[in-house]
Design brief:
The structure holds 2 protein chains of 2 kinds. Chain A is of the alpha/beta class. Chain A contains 15 helices and 12 strands. Chain B is globular and about 70 Å long. The chains are: A alpha/beta, B alpha/beta.
């Protein structure tokens, strides 16, 4: 492609799906009779094979490095207990044939040589279907489970991550000597990245093949696309080189009315009374079980000496007072109970597509037409049946509108995402990351 | 030579499936194209064939290959085992996993996950890497001597504690109280390396991020002398005679299951084992610490029958996997089964069952058994 065409973004006119089996989150309903196991292999097999039946491009797994905590003890209310991503994906590779297998892996508590080797191994084992979703962590709380312990300054996390990724690419390219494994047919694992800060976006524009974005809402998605296109060009890459797949949730039914009713039911199970109280407790830093989930927000002040680094208690001290006062005012003004307020904050408000199969298909077709995204990474709210209605009803509607694949383009993830095979840059000899 | 299983002891057979075989020149005699070694089809075919032949366990060596090994590389052992999990139903899957230059928390999660994808058929062959290359790759100084055993012991203890850190039944899904987990059944392990630890000391907080493995505790295999607390000890000696002596000696000193390590070269397709070995040795020198059997299938049946009197199992290292396997599957295992010296293979069984081990309660459990009866709420 000439420099001229590489510089202009061309909408593909199509969208694709991925599925994110989250394993640890509040969005997965465990209270319904059909809620299945989070650890049995059959749950993984069922989701992956359903996704493959629906021609999904990718199956994602998260990475767990420390159990979430709440007020100093493991958090009890949400699904938890997450198997190792690459081990599960290696197992899934034997019972699937086309779907991409994406492992979220941390650059702080993994070692570049070990991680690069295992990703290369998964890529060969799966016939070129492996991908790495690059994430960074900077807290010592997680480090307590690792020999390498320690933590990074928040500002340094992308500096470290980029050195790590360059090292991994160098290992795959044989920059540091003969690689332990040959490359798969499609060069190397596909790279996903989810950073959203300016540093994170630049990092993705330089390194990633696909951005797992947080911008599924139409206007937001269009704006994000424009931003990534300009950052990609600034990084010397083509306007279409970085694919975008936002996180999303789908609540679908035969009619609009049914879909809205279903949404009420889904939300009531996602945010039960205990989850609502626990959510506030993270920010108040103290126990609030005496408060009625269907009553107003707590009138007491948050504990100001809370210094736990537990993931989820995002801020401390004076900031907590300021925020909780603001919330109280907001809830009072809108007449929201604790439960309704927490639901409005935690449900994937922007990321949820609710409606009939045909109306949602119309909406997604518009994303495809303008090229707002390349696809959606769907978090099912039910395991393992959560993709069934998407694959059985939404996918055919999208195919009728000619905005969704009708077959896999090939056997490798690179082919199925429409990614070019990158040119090996052996002249680059990065400093190894440690 | 004994020809029956007097005393009713029956043993198990494991097959090492790494690469093209144990002999460094095995790749020259492999019955597949060189490009077909490092892919899923090769793993599926070899493990399924081993399962159909009646092997109780498959093992997968790991680590960086020596220079000039002749093959293009080695896929991660734990991934190979995991890949085989969903397509098999009875064969035990035992990857070798290093304990020196790896993160104990990751290993523990990976092995527990292997137990889930295999329905409780996971084992762990503990390795203490002596590779300078592997040390350099993670920026550590080379560990040697007594330090190796310390590293292995610490890593295994971390895994065992993490596997127990979720008691059975910690996932309660209690709708009325909104609790998915019973937090009283989750435990911080607060592991610390001992004061005399030769390497840089470390700590692991826990709990695990995955519920207790299906087997409760995954069986741990280790070469004799590496790990005091192994469930299975692998015994090597330079000759068959020394091997038998060594097995008897170790068996008297340990409660662990004892497995004999044996290199095997067999007559094949009209060519004698010794002629084949000569050919292979011309192509590359075979420097192995294990006893070596070179001969006919019938002779091997006798040797294995004798070994299984003094050992709980034998692990076979085929000189050339494709070639030796054909003889083992067609001539050796059927005759051993006829003689009744092999344990029956049970689809859906666990590795602990093969070893005759019960499923232990978590060490953190508040439910303990005393004299065979269950006591609830005892101090832990």
């Amino acid at each position: 492609m000439s420099q001229h065409t590489r510089a202009k973004f061309q909408p593909s006119g199509r969208i694709q799906f991925g599925v994110f089996f989250q394993g640890v989150n509040s969005g997965t309903i465990w209270k319904a009779p059909e809620s299945g196991s989070q650890t049995d292999f059959e749950s993984f097999r069922r989701i992956a094979q359903t996704a493959e039946r629906g021609l999904f491009a990718a199956f994602f797994l998260g990475e767990g490095l420390r159990l979430r905590e709440h007020l100093g003890r493991p958090h009890a209310l949400d699904v938890a207990g997450r198997p190792d991503a690459q081990t599960m994906l290696a197992a899934l590779a034997s019972v699937t044939s086309n779907i991409g297998l994406v492992a979220t892996q941390n650059t702080t508590y993994n070692d570049p040589s070990d991680l690069a080797h295992r990703l290369a191994s998964l890529d060969l084992l799966s016939g070129g279907r492996a991908a790495w979703n690059i994430v960074t962590t900077d807290n010592a709380w997680t480090g307590a489970n690792f020999r390498r312990g320690g933590y990074l300054d928040h500002a340094d996390r992308y500096v470290h991550a980029e050195a790590f990724v360059e090292t991994a690419k160098g290992i795959w390219d044989g920059v540091y000597g003969t690689p332990r494994l040959p490359r798969s047919a499609k060069y190397r694992p596909v790279l996903f990245q989810a950073g959203d800060s300016p540093d994170g976006r630049d990092f993705a524009a330089r390194q990633a093949d696909v951005i797992f974005s947080a911008h599924p809402k139409f206007d937001d998605a269009v704006e994000f696309r424009a931003d990534i296109v300009s950052r990609s060009l600034a990084a010397g890459r083509g306007a279409n080189d970085v694919k975008i797949m936002p996180a999303s949730e789908f609540i679908l039914a035969g009619s609009e009315h049914e879909a809205r009713e279903k949404k009420e039911w889904v939300r009531s199970l996602q945010i039960g009374p205990q989850q609502a109280i626990a959510y506030l407790e993270q920010f108040w830093g103290r126990e609030l079980s005496a408060y009625d989930p269907d009553g107003p927000l707590p009138d007491i002040e948050p504990a100001v000496d809370e210094t736990s680094e537990t993931r989820g208690s995002g801020f401390h001290g004076a900031k907590a007072r300021e925020l909780t006062a603001q919330w109280r005012a907001e809830a009072a003004e809108k007449g929201l109970t604790i439960r309704k307020f927490v639901t409005s904050r935690t449900a994937r408000v922007d990321a949820t597509f609710t409606g009939s199969y045909s109306s949602v298909a119309d909406t997604l077709a518009e994303y495809a037409r303008v090229g707002a995204v390349d696809g959606f990474n769907i978090s099912p709210w039910l395991i393992p049946t959560g993709l069934d209605d998407i694959v059985n009803h939404l996918v055919p509607e999208l195919q009728e509108r000619r905005v969704y694949p009708t077959e896999y383009a090939g056997n490798t993830l690179r082919e199925n995402l429409g990614l070019a095979t990158p040119v090996r840059s052996a002249s680059l000899v990065p400093e190894p990351a440690r | 030579m004994s020809t029956s299983s007097e005393g009713g002891r029956r043993g198990f057979l494991a097959l090492e499936l790494d690469g093209d075989g144990a002999h460094p020149a095995a790749w020259r005699k492999a019955r597949h194209a060189p490009d077909d070694l490092l892919n899923g089809a090769r793993i599926r075919n070899t493990v399924l064939a081993a399962e159909s032949a009646g092997f109780h366990a498959a093992t997968f060596a790991d680590g960086s290959l020596d220079e000039g090994s002749g093959i293009a590389g080695r896929l991660n052992a734990l991934q190979r085992a995991a890949f085989a999990g969903p397509v098999t139903s009875s064969i035990v899957l035992v990857p070798e996993v290093d304990t020196v230059y790896t993160e104990p928390f990751h290993i523990s999660t990976q092995l527990a996950s292997l137990d889930y994808v295999s329905g409780g058929r996971a084992g762990w062959l503990v390795k203490a890497s002596t590779s300078a290359e592997e040390a350099a790759a993670v920026g550590r100084a080379v560990v040697s001597g007594a330090g190796l055993a310390q590293e292995a012991a610490a890593s295994v203890e971390v895994s065992r504690k993490l596997w127990d850190s979720w008691e059975d039944g910690a996932v309660i899904r209690d709708v009325p109280t909104g609790r998915y987990l019973d937090v009283d059944k989750l435990h911080y392990i607060d592991f610390e390396t001992p004061a005399d630890f030769a390497g840089q000391r470390y700590a692991v907080k826990g709990p695990s991020i995955i519920p207790r493995p299906l087997q409760g505790q995954i069986p741990v295999l280790a070469p004799a002398g590496l790990l005091a607390e192994a469930d299975v000890v692998l015994v090597s000696a330079p000759t068959l005679e020394l091997l038998a002596d060594e097995l008897a000696g170790i068996r008297g000193r340990t409660g662990a299951a004892v497995v004999a390590e044996l290199d095997v070269v067999l007559d094949s397709r009209g060519q004698s084992a010794s002629a084949r070995l000569t050919e292979l040795d011309v192509l590359g020198e075979w420097d192995s610490p294990r006893a070596r059997f070179v001969g006919t299938a019938a002779e091997l049946v006798d040797v294995l029958t004798d070994l299984l009197v003094v050992a709980d199992g034998v692990r076979i290292h085929p000189a050339v996997l494709d070639v030796e396997f054909e003889e083992l599957a067609q001539l050796v295992l059927p005759e051993l089964r006829r003689r009744g010296v092999l344990k029956p293979v049970s689809p859906g069984g666990t590795f602990r069952e093969v070893l005759g081990l019960g499923r232990p309660l978590s060490r953190y459990s508040s439910t303990v058994t005393v004299g065979g009866s269950v006591v609830v709420g005892a101090e832990n």
